[in-house]
Design goal:
alpha/beta
């Protein structure tokens, strides 16, 4: 929580409205002597609740008003003053759910007297609410955090007892004192009740011996009952007369209202016709505006925007087509060249394939002949031996297996070579794609550069347009806000007019048939006319109650609700003299200076704690604290009970009233039945509301006139801005068209860039896939090579075996023939490998030729389409230019037409508003009169049966008395008779029954006495416990403050030493707290022996020590360095600056050191007109340099 600012209005030396901004930390207030610095302190004391005008340096409150001079007849000066404190409550330090809270307290002159008012955030409040909020926040006018001028050494000058009590306040042990006082008071009350019970016990014993007196008591009771009967008859006649008077007065008001309504009907009919005519004109103009400025204007703007965009797109498409045609033509030439090269290469490959195929066929034929011859030789050798035959079969199988493996190897070699060709082609495509990608990236950069250049021009135009738009929109919002505010003011005027009419009617109704006695009415009239001084109001006016308790409390108060409260007994005497002189009647007065305070009895306290008890009647009424004794006098010991059944349990032990209105007297009597509430109810007077409502209406009408004038001027300015805005929008549209064009081109190039990037990624992916396939084929080939090697080894071995078996010449021939056959097979393998390689190359080249041919066809087709697009877009562009020119002219004409219509509409709106306001005001008055008349008729209808019922309650033979006293007198007489009857108690001729009752009563008294003795013992124990807790709490706080005091004093003095000492350590509350201190390089002395400046340092250290334990949101110090030398002034300034990091300090000072250490400096000086002025000092050093050398501010 932090104090943000102070606001004065005609407070002391500050004239008019003055705002004092207060920053966080250390704020210093300075200025010459007599300039009004301390008046800022007085303002804070005033709002925090100081009731002492001495503390505020004024003899009377009215002297706080600027320019007030006692005894002068000056009437032009201010008649009021007020002070506001604005707090930052974002931490919810105050118990209010708002981030900023404003407390306002003011004074108004009322003739010779003054009235004080309170406001919380502009809403009516009270001193008690201020005090409650401030106390919970630790803010008091007399608190330790506020040091007035010359009081800084008061802590040092305090007696030990006073200093101990200051620490008690900080520790908050006053609550323990209150509990101790309450406990002791309760014990004294219980002891008093014990004494009373002893007396009653003695009385009960005597009663048991006095049965012979019952006859006399019975005769007395009979006489009282007879008087009660007479009083009851008179009350019934009084009810009849009251009902008749109420009905008659209401009929008179109904007749008067009927005449007023007839006149209002005629006037409203004429007004309604006038409003309808003007409304029709207004609607016609609105319709024209809606047609011209609504859908048509929007359609025109939309068409204009569409045409601009379409024109830009058309130009972009045309340019894009030209650029794309150029690119396609270049690409076509490249593709055509590549296609020719690929076709020639394919032709050469086919020729090579034919030649190699012939060679392979020739080698295969040669191998077949050799294989046949080898078979013959091996067959011949096999005929000679079974072993040779077996070896021959094995060799044949191995040769077949070797042949198959060789075929697989040739196939894999061919596949691998084909894949390598595809890989080479794919890599070439990747290189070409990357070159294409680089070219497109260059185009993108160029397009971006041109686009940025255009964006600069568009941005400049847009900024100018935005400024004009912002200003234009702000003015439009201002117009809308003014119109809304005008509507709000008109609505408020209607509401307030209705409320004023309603309250005037209600006030007249209360005045005419409010239920007060004639004498009470006469005195209240004199009060309102200021003919009699000192009359505050009736009990009914001064109390507020919840509806739940209304019946019970009004019955409990009875006729005393009409009792009049006065300031003192002299005012009551003057009022009585007035009643006598005018022979009006009698009234019961309650002078504040004479009414005694009331304490409930022990019996009443016990009843209030029982089941069904809702509390003392006085506690259920809301009233100003100063009237507590008055309401105690009215209600006494009366306890409000929930129901009759619960209350009957305690009948005869105290006075009780139920929520339904039954009365249970302390003597045992019950009063109940139908008890309708009278016309007098608890509530507060609203006589000031009518004046406030009238003032509010006048202020609103003035505000409305001023707003209308401002609105006319703002509308004119809005028209000028609209023209400028239209010109800038046209300029912006031109830029936007070019930006849209380049933006579209950039978008297309970036799209191509994306396509190229994707193509590169696809081709690189293909390269990776082909490399994977090559690795796979290489692995398979390596595996086949190993297999072929194994089979070759087996063949060699089998051949050797066969030769060994065959032997001789045959084996030599077979061996030579086998070698020739192996050589031929190697030639065949090489030829087949070449054949597979050429086949793969031919297939790859066929694919490339087909691809190039397809791309050429796509290129030619796209060029044809773009030629057509270019032709269409050029034609479309010319048409759009014509359309744009036409739409711009139509837009300009439409703007001029709308401006004229809006001016006409605004004039009609103002006229209609005035007519409707007048009509609504009269209509509300008419409705108020009609409602009031209906209510009165209902009340008449309701009271007529009650009047008949009241008449029927009077016995037929009863004669009408010549005079019937007033209700107040009859109620008072009835109360006296009831008391007399209750005092006699239950008189019964049956002595035994009476004796039994008295014996039971005596037994109950003894039982009650035992209970009270136990209560005394319990209270003694409680007192001991509270005293122990109080001392423990005090010592904890004392030790904390003592340690902080030592530290603070050492910091302030730069090495001094000080301490707090208990005068009686064993019984702290029987002694005080002394202070001993030692300045640097000095001896330790009691505080009384220190110099004035040293005492000031001790006091500041003590304040800072308390701050450390019980922080306050802010501290107010008025010249704390008044008696200090330069060195100690600097110590104090630095100490405050250090403490300002945890609390807000407001310090009035004339010393340079304080100014230099502060965070904020506010200068106060006296103007030529005698009024104080404020100045925010930004540069303290410059300010001090401007003063005379070695001079302080106030010198």
């Amino acid at each position: 929580m932090r104090l943000l600012e102070l606001e004065f209005e005609n407070f002391k030396s500050f004239k008019g409205h003055v705002t004092v901004p207060l920053g966080p930390g250390f704020t210093c207030i300075t200025g010459p002597n007599g300039s009004g610095k301390s008046n800022i302190t007085d303002a804070i004391l005033f709002i925090l609740g100081s009731r002492s005008t001495k503390l505020l340096r004024a003899r009377k409150l009215k002297q706080l008003i600027y320019g007030f001079q006692e005894g002068t007849k000056k009437k032009t000066g201010p008649k009021a003053c007020k002070v506001s404190m604005v707090f930052d409550n974002s931490d919810r330090f105050l118990a209010i759910e708002k981030d900023q809270v404003t407390f306002t307290k003011g004074i108004r002159l009322r003739g010779e007297n003054t009235t004080t008012y309170y406001q919380l955030d502009g809403i009516k409040s009270s001193a008690s609410e201020f005090e409650a909020l401030f106390s919970r926040a630790g803010l008091y006018a007399t608190g330790y955090n506020i040091i007035q001028q010359g009081d800084v050494i008061q802590t040092s000058l305090m007696s030990g007892i006073e200093r101990r009590r200051k620490i008690e306040d900080v520790a908050g042990i006053t609550a323990y004192d209150n509990r101790l006082r309450s406990t002791r008071s309760a014990r004294n009350s219980v002891e008093a009740d014990l004494t009373l019970l002893n007396d009653r016990a003695k009385e009960a014993k005597r009663t048991l011996k006095q049965l012979e007196r019952e006859k006399e008591d019975a005769e007395k009771l009979e006489a009282v009952l007879e008087k009660i009967k007479e009083n009851d008859i008179l009350l019934k006649f009084r009810n009849v007369f009251d009902f008749e008077a109420e009905i008659e007065s209401r009929r008179e008001v109904v007749e008067r209202y009927t005449e007023e309504l007839s006149e209002l009907e005629k006037e409203q009919k004429e007004r309604k016709e006038d409003i309808e005519n003007k409304q029709k004109q207004f609607e016609d103009v609105e319709r024209n505006i809606a047609v011209s400025g609504g859908d048509k204007a929007r359609e025109l703007q939309e068409e204009l925007d569409k045409a601009r965009v379409a024109h830009a797109l058309s130009e972009r498409n045309s340019d894009g087509a030209v650029n794309r045609l150029q690119e396609l033509e270049v690409n076509r030439k490249l593709l055509d060249n590549e296609h020719k090269i690929a076709s020639n290469e394919l032709k050469n490959l086919n020729n090579d394939l034919t030649k190699i195929s012939k060679d392979v066929l020739k080698i295969e034929s040669n191998i077949a002949a050799k294989v046949s011859k080898l078979s013959e030789l091996e067959g011949a050798a096999a005929n000679n031996s079974e072993a040779v035959s077996t070896q021959r079969d094995e060799l044949e199988i191995l040769r077949k297996e070797a042949g198959e493996l060789e075929m697989q190897r040739h196939r894999l070699d061919g596949e691998k070579e084909q894949i390598e060709i595809q890989l080479t082609s794919a890599r070439e495509q990747v290189i070409r794609s990357k070159k294409w990608l680089d070219s497109i990236e260059t185009d993108v950069k160029e397009a971006d550069y041109q686009l940025k250049d255009l964006e600069v021009g568009r941005k400049s135009t847009t900024q100018n347009l935005d400024k004009v738009k912002t200003k234009h929109n702000n003015i439009l919002r201002t117009i809308e806000a003014h119109q809304e505010k005008l509507g709000s003011i008109e609505s408020k005027l209607r509401t307030l007019s209705m409320k004023l009419a309603s309250q005037e009617a209600a006030q007249r109704a209360r005045e005419e048939f409010g239920g007060y006695a004639k004498a009470v009415k006469a005195l209240l009239d004199c009060r309102d006319k200021r003919e009699l001084r000192g009359i505050i109001g009736t009990i009914a006016e001064l109390g507020r109650v919840d509806e739940k308790y209304a019946t019970a409390l009004e019955v409990a108060a009875g006729a005393r609700m009409q009792s009049i409260v006065t300031e003192d007994d002299s005012a009551a005497a003057a009022a009585i003299d007035f009643l006598k002189r005018n022979n009006i009647g009698r009234v019961r007065f309650l002078p504040l200076n004479k009414v005694h305070s009331y304490k409930p009895s022990a019996h009443a306290l016990m009843i209030s704690k029982k089941d069904g008890a809702l509390g003392f009647a006085q506690d259920l009424v809301k009233f100003d604290e100063r009237y507590s004794d008055v309401f105690g006098n009215v209600f006494g010991d009366t306890v409000i009970m929930d129901s009759l059944n619960l209350a009957r349990k305690y009948l005869g032990k105290g006075r009780m009233v139920t929520l339904q209105g039954e009365i249970l007297e302390s003597g045992g009597a019950l009063v109940g039945g139908a008890a309708p509430r009278t016309g007098i109810h608890f509530g507060t007077s609203e006589r000031n509301d009518l004046d406030e409502l009238s003032n509010d209406i006048r202020n609103l009408e003035a505000e409305k006139l001023q707003l209308s004038s401002e609105l006319h001027e703002i509308i004119r300015e809005a028209g000028q801005l609209a023209t400028t805005r239209q010109e800038l929008e046209s300029k912006k549209a031109a830029f936007q068209t070019r930006v849209t064009d380049y933006d579209g081109r950039t978008g297309e190039i970036k799209k191509r860039l994306q396509e190229a990037d994707e193509a590169v990624k696809i081709r690189e992916g293909l390269v990776e896939a082909l490399q994977g396939e090559i690795i796979e084929r290489t692995g398979l080939l390596e595996g086949l090579e190993k297999e072929i090697q194994k089979v070759s080894t087996k063949i060699s071995k089998a051949t050797e075996n066969l030769q060994a078996v065959a032997g001789g010449k045959t084996s030599k021939v077979i061996s030579e023939l086998q070698n020739n056959l192996d050589e031929a097979r190697e030639q065949l393998s090489y030829g087949q490998a070449n054949l597979a390689s050429l086949t793969a190359k031919i297939d790859s080249m066929k694919s490339e030729v087909g691809r190039l041919k397809g791309e050429l066809e796509i290129n030619i087709t796209e060029q044809k389409e773009l030629q057509e697009t270019k032709k269409i877009e050029n034609k479309k562009n010319k048409e759009l230019e014509k359309l744009l020119k036409s739409l711009r002219k139509e837009e300009h004409d439409k703007f001029k037409e709308l401006k004229g219509l809006r001016d006409e509409r605004d004039e009609l709106h103002d006229l209609l508003t005035n007519l409707k306001t007048d009509f609504s005001t009269k209509q509300e008055l008419r409705r108020s009169r009609r409602h009031a008349m209906d209510d009165l008729k209902i009340e008449i209808t309701t009271r007529e049966p009650k009047l008949i019922e009241a008449r029927n309650r009077i016995p037929k033979e009863t004669e009408t008395p010549k005079t019937v006293p007033g209700r107040e007198k009859l109620d008072a007489e009835k109360e006296t008779l009831d008391r007399n009857r209750n005092r006699l108690g239950n008189v019964n001729m049956l002595s035994l029954e009476h004796y039994r009752q008295e014996a039971e009563r005596f037994s109950e008294i003894k039982k009650h006495r035992r209970q009270l003795n136990e209560e005394v013992r319990r209270l003694d124990t409680l007192e001991t416990k509270i005293s122990e807790k109080k001392e423990a709490k005090f010592m904890g706080v004392y030790n904390n403050i003592s340690e902080s005091f030592k530290t603070s004093f050492k910091e302030i003095t730069g090495g001094g030493e000080a301490g707090l000492v208990l005068e009686n350590e064993k019984a702290p509350f029987e002694g005080g707290v002394t202070i001993k201190a030692r300045m640097p390089r000095k001896k330790m002395y009691p505080v009384e022996a220190l110099s004035g400046g040293e005492k000031s340092l001790v006091s500041m250290a003590f304040i800072f020590a308390i701050q450390g334990y019980d922080p306050s949101p802010f501290y107010l110090l008025d010249e704390p360095d008044q008696n200090l030398d330069g060195v100690n002034t600097e110590h104090i300034g630095r100490a405050i600056a250090l403490q300002s990091s945890v609390a807000q300090f407001l310090v009035v000072s004339l010393h340079h050191a304080a100014l230099r250490e502060s965070d904020n400096v506010i200068g106060v000086f006296m103007g030529d007109d005698g009024a104080s002025r404020l100045h925010q000092i930004r540069d303290v050093d410059t300010f001090l340099a401007s003063l005379p050398v070695e001079a302080e501010v106030g010198a």
